[in-house]
Hints:
Layout: E1 2-8, E2 11-18, E3 21-25, H1 32-47, E4 55-59, E5 62-66, H2 76-97, E6 109-110, H3 116-126, E7 134-135, H4 136-142, H5 149-157, E8 170-171, H6 184-193
Parallel strand pairs: 5-6, 7-8
Antiparallel strand pairs: 1-2, 2-3, 4-5
Amino acid sequence: MQKAVIQTSLGWVAAAATSDGIYCTTLPQLTEVQAWDHLDEELKLRSRRPGKGRHGATAGGASITGTVAPVDDAAPNGDTAAKAHLDGYRAALAAYSAGAAGRLAEIPLDLTGLPEFHLRVMQACRRIPAGETRSYAWLARAAGSPDACRAAGNAMARNPVPLLVPCHRVLRTGGGLGGFGGGLPQKRALLAHEGWKDQQD
């Protein structure tokens, strides 16, 4: 596994990658130290999630993979692939900071250990265009489980790759902002950065 911290106009973002793709990321933080700390917390959470089998899927032109066995990134090829994913994420973040969000949906993800339903929710969320929002009810339907609105919300709350899976674009049914791991001011700021107009303003 390879790690990096990236400075953007939105703040400091830390990420970890395997040879399969980006494994976890942070939301933009005020300092480099905070970004590393948040990444360490997410890595600890991921390590406690049991594997649910291997799943492969495609969303928005990018692969989403979950595996039970950890990828051996001690090998040179693993190192090279993981670094390439981080380089791709760095370039996509630079584009996003400049106002072009589309490249984030093209970055491969390694969602090892996430349940099948969570993977489907992640796929659906990645299809929400920048500048637009959807409800948790929409997300549940798009994931193939229309009665699982609350479960879809729980999947978003445990999203290990924010920005890459844009959980900030999911709102309460009826238009309320809902919850967000980075706090509602950051959720609103990310949506505003993408050109979304809050109809409640």
